[in-house]
Amino acid sequence: MASSATMMAGGPRLQEQHTITVLVDNKPGVLARVSGLFARRGYNIESLTVSITENPEVSRMTIVVGGDMDTLEQITKQLHKLIDTLKVVDYLDIPMLERELALIKVSADPGQRAELMQLVEIFRGRVIDVAEKTFVVEVTGSGEKIDSFEKQMEAFGVRELVRTGRIAMMRGPRTV
Question: Hey, what CATH topology would domain 97-168 get?
């Protein structure tokens, strides 16, 4: 699903989340121009991931932004106008695969470790670091899965959390 309703911070108004992929020239300053475009127009980027593609001269940005259909249309029009933009795809009606990665450091007292390991297994995560009083867990999946896992980890005491943000790819043989 390419968009989902989310609560706005500070109020009950619902806002759609849209996933947009932008292929750009892989050169300095492009990320600043893209993020500046959003800032100048008052659009909040909820998630942004950037990396090179199979072609080292091209970077792929996956941007999650909130707004209605008019907002999405304005954003895509403005992205097309940027010189370094090669292609813009919004996943509104396009079947896609999406994933996030999270690393979560939790307190892991000896008496809780079995329960913690059981939850990690249920969510198909991996313990990637064990210290005297903490575990670092890696989990991948949809944003909803990560949210749910994070909520379960609160009982153990989350000491540190980092999430990649959404990455997305079209299903099937079509490519961006």
Answer: Alpha-Beta Plaits (3.30.70)
Six token digits for residue 152: 């379960």
Is residue 106 within 8 Å of 157, Cβ to Cβ? yes
pLDDT attached to residue 176 = 66
Query: What average pLDDT values come out for the chain (176 residues) when binned by 10 residues?
Result: 39 67 95 91 90 94 89 89 93 88 94 94 96 95 95 96 91 74
Is the domain spanning 3-94 CATH 3.40.50.300? The answer is no
Residue reference for tokens 């072609």:
55
| Gap between the Cα atoms of 141 and 125, Å rounded | 9
